[in-house]
Amino acid sequence: MSDSAEPLGGVHVKYLLHCPRQLWLYMRGYRPEGGSDLVAFGEIVDETTFTRRRDIDLGEARIDWVTTGAIVHETKSSRAPSPAHEAQVRHYCLLLERRGVGVRGGIVHYPLIRRTVTVDWDDDARARALATETEAREVIATPVVPPRLERRRCRGCSYTDYCWG
């Protein structure tokens, strides 16, 4: 990443992997998330679970918490683990590593289903995080909006009205 490149946070990674169109619109100021019941529900789950932890604000990203030994923790309100969630944790590991933190990995917590997913941090994970970051920058830089997904994949997305309205 060059110093002049705009920083990318976890939301950029999540949107890229959910729908490149969503990332593209988000970067151009279209942000309907504020009126989304699903987003509000996720914020409530985040605020009411693991209440003794502290967010880590990196500027471009907010990590739910980091435990001793540099393990990144992310809480999701989803009832189904997703590769996008793991990609977010890998991105946070990359951001911390760039700041000189000796990251060891991460854990995605799903309190609604009482499940966790371990995210490794090794050379392969680093390469995947860098590739995701490159892909996000390519989507952001493209001059035309990416195509919309099949409608069934848009269920619950706060951008549905824009894409399908």
From TrEMBL:
<dbReference type="Pfam" id="PF01930">
    <property type="entry name" value="Cas_Cas4"/>
</dbReference>
<feature type="domain" description="DUF83">
    <location>
        <begin position="10"/>
        <end position="164"/>
    </location>
</feature>
<protein>
    <recommendedName>
        <fullName>DUF83 domain-containing protein</fullName>
    </recommendedName>
</protein>
<dbReference type="InterPro" id="IPR011604">
    <property type="entry name" value="PDDEXK-like_dom_sf"/>
</dbReference>
<dbReference type="InterPro" id="IPR022765">
    <property type="entry name" value="Dna2/Cas4_DUF83"/>
</dbReference>
